[in-house]
Design brief:
The chain is of the alpha+beta class. It contains seven helices and ten strands. An eight-stranded antiparallel beta sheet has the order 4-5-6-1-7-8-10-9. The protein has a two-stranded antiparallel sheet with strand order 2-3.
C-alpha cells in the first residue's frame, strides 16, 4: 500500500534558482539513506512508452532550465503561473517498478500574489518535501528502520516545522483529529521536546534535533489490515493534539511553529 513522508519547512520565499538549489540538496541528502539508494531520474517522455530523461544531480543548469520552463508553462498565456513552483524526481527504471519518488514545493513572491485580487490576502507561503513509497524496497521491503532514516534526513535538511509518514487511507478515512490539523500517522517529528511519559501510547519517543521523533508502531502496518495498530496510531495523534503540538496550515505559513 502506498504511503508518503511529508515535511513542512519554514517558508522563506527563495528565488526560483535558490529553490532548485534546495531541491538538489534534498536529493543529495535523501540519496544517502538506505531506502532511497538507487539514484534519481527526471523523465522527459514524448509519450507513455518513452523513458527518456536525465539525472538531476549531473547538471544543475539543465535541471534549473527544465523546471523553470515547466513552471512558466503552467500559467495561461500572458498570465502568471497558478501553481507554486516545484521539482520532482523518481527512482530510475520502468515506471511500474519504481519504489520511491520525491517532490519539492516552495513559494516565490510573485506566485504568492499571482491571480489574487489586491483586496484579498496573498496565498499562504509554503515549503514542502514529499517522499512517496509506492512499492516495497527490493532489499528492505517495508521495514521501519530505513523509513525512520528518511524521516531523520527530512528533519535535518533545513528548518523543519512538522514531518509525518502515513498511508493515504489514514488521511482520508481514519484521521483522528480536526481535518485542518497535521498528524503523524506512523512515523513523525514535532518541534517540541517530548518524552515517552508525555506520549505513553507511542511505541517510541526520542529526542531528535530541537524536537522529538515519534513512532506509533514498530512494525509495518496498514489501516485496513491492522486494526490494533490503527487504533494505536490514532491514540498517539489524539494525545499529540491534546498536547498542542500538531499544527494547522496557518501555523505553518507563519513560519514560527515550535519556536
Amino acid at each position: 500500500m502506498s504511503f508518503d513522508a511529508t515535511a513542512d519547512y519554514v517558508p522563506d520565499n527563495p528565488s526560483f534558482e535558490e529553490g532548485i538549489g534546495q531541491y538538489l540538496g534534498l536529493l543529495e541528502d535523501l540519496g544517502r539513506t538506505k531506502r532511497l539508494d538507487n539514484g534519481w531520474f527526471v523523465g522527459t517522455p514524448a509519450d507513455e512508452h518513452d523513458l527518456s530523461g536525465f539525472d538531476p544531480l549531473e547538471d544543475g543548469q539543465t535541471t534549473y532550465e527544465h523546471f523553470l520552463a515547466r513552471y512558466k508553462s503552467s500559467g495561461y498565456e500572458g498570465q502568471p503561473p497558478k501553481m507554486p513552483p516545484d521539482a520532482f524526481a523518481d527512482e530510475p527504471g520502468p515506471y511500474l517498478e519504481r519504489c520511491y519518488s520525491v517532490q519539492y514545493k516552495w513559494s516565490v513572491p510573485e506566485w504568492n500574489r499571482a491571480n489574487v485580487p489586491p483586496s484579498l490576502p496573498a496565498a499562504k507561503p509554503l515549503c514542502e518535501a514529499r517522499v512517496a513509497f509506492p512499492l516495497p524496497h527490493p532489499k528492505w521491503g517495508m521495514e521501519p528502520g530505513p523509513l525512520i532514516e528518511v524521516v531523520k534526513a527530512l528533519v535535518a535538511f533545513r528548518a523543519a516545522q512538522h514531518v509525518a509518514l502515513y498511508f493515504w487511507s489514514y488521511r482520508t478515512e481514519h484521521w483522528p483529529v480536526d481535518i485542518t490539523r497535521r498528524a503523524i500517522g506512523w512515523i513523525g517529528w514535532v518541534p517540541f521536546p517530548l518524552t515517552q511519559r508525555d506520549v505513553p501510547e507511542a511505541a517510541r519517543v526520542e529526542a531528535l534535533g530541537r524536537g522529538s521523533l515519534i513512532v506509533t508502531n514498530e512494525a509495518y502496518w496498514t489501516p485496513h489490515e491492522n486494526p490494533e495498530a490503527l487504533a494505536r496510531a490514532q491514540a498517539v495523534d489524539r494525545r499529540l493534539n491534546l498536547l498542542g503540538v500538531l499544527p494547522t496550515a496557518d501555523d505553518l505559513a507563519r513560519g514560527d511553529w515550535g519556536q
